[in-house]
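Aim 2 progress update. The chain analyzed this quarter is reproduced below.
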Amino acid sequence: IMNQTLDKILLPYLVADKATAMQQLGIYGANYKIAIVMVMFAQAFRYAYEPFIFAQAKGGGKDSDGKKRAYCDAMKFFVIFGLFIFLAVMFYLPVLKHFVSPAYWEGLAVVPVMMLAELCFGVFFNLSLWYKLTDRTQWGMYLSLLCFALMLELNLWLVPAIGIPDGYMGSAWAALISYFTVMVVSYFLGRRYYPLPYQIGRMTLYLLLAGILYYAGTCIDTVFAPWLLYTVRTLFLAIYMGAVVIAEKVPMPGFWR
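Predicted structure tokens:
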């Protein structure tokens, strides 16, 4: 909980002028609300995933190939849908931004950074099964403390370094760096204590595809009229999901074949 709220606690104390500090906190908090879509997705996944992995473990033969494949598939599809949510929010951000006051729109740059941070946090949670299934739950504490230390140090450094008027971006980058680091550390520890054949290559390709489509979608922002812009971006979303359907060989209804 501290890892997810520390930035909002520290931010008012890292800007000398109190009025400016509260203004930056307001901008940061308002734009974080747009990124809450990724938080909700990760939380919903979390509620379903823990009962799933423990049910699988109780079924006997917890090291069977079928169960390991199920864990890896859960990770893969979490990443697939997480990237889809990221693209959808970013492509339609000019519409979604109206959920917050225009006074806060100057901080919209926070949204992609925080969405990626929350995606990394979701992957980190997904990876946590290795220490839960091997009864090494002390590692959950170690990793949380590592994340806390990183979050604290990076906020103390980045917010003053970036300064006014965009100091809140330091908090966003601190979250992304911290969550990404503990995600990577947890992955390599999991390879040692409970190795799973995660499809890293395929997930990386999905990440690259999403990155290319996101870049292309932002490049055409000022080129087309709004209706055409959203049409093209919707096409990009369809391309992403089409690539997933083809790569994963998802069964389709007869009229789509």
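The two ends are 47 Å apart (CA to CA). Residues 18-58 form the longest helix (41 residues). These observations will guide the mutagenesis experiments scheduled for the next reporting period.
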